[in-house]
């Protein structure tokens, strides 16, 4: 792969740090670092911005890395999908083991909680890997994920993307509150049905 070395070479020739380059093409410094270390590849929009900034054609910049980039994007997207579905399923199984162990199988509260939490934790680790892959590719919103999966340019300048990037802590808090509310509702109905 030559793209990472090409980006680094052009960046250093222009005296830009990774932060400077990231600001000019609207990505994070970690994204630029991932590109330069051949961990990930830029999307089409970023490639175009890089070619304009470095005053080279896209062909000169990528030199045969196109197929490798497509394959890497497809592989990362497949990983995200499998890990997301698998992680969600494992989390649900962990919750079911806890509830079932305590109510149906008479394992007792402590063994049910230990087994449920262990399985639940495995699911959360899988979902954390998905978030890490999304962060590597600088994908935040669902719209960006869909564009990434198709290899299309990612519009990071729309209102939702800007809001999600501007307030990541608020987004995390809101997601946690929604998950807690869903858990509370499911717990209440579970208690009403089985309690």
Automatic annotation (TrEMBL):
Gene3D superfamilies given in the database record: lambda repressor-like DNA-binding domains
GO molecular function, one term: DNA binding
Organism: Gordonibacter pamelaeae 7-10-1-b
SMART domains, per database record: HTH_XRE
PROSITE patterns membership: HTH_CROC1 (PS50943)
Domain HTH cro/C1-type: 7-61
Top-rank taxon, per record: Bacteria
The name this protein goes by in its record: Predicted transcriptional regulators
Keyword Lyase: no
Membrane-spanning parts: 80-103, 109-130, 169-191
Keyword Membrane (UniProt): yes
Record key words, sorted: DNA-binding, Membrane, Transmembrane, Transmembrane helix
One Pfam family per UniProt: HTH_3
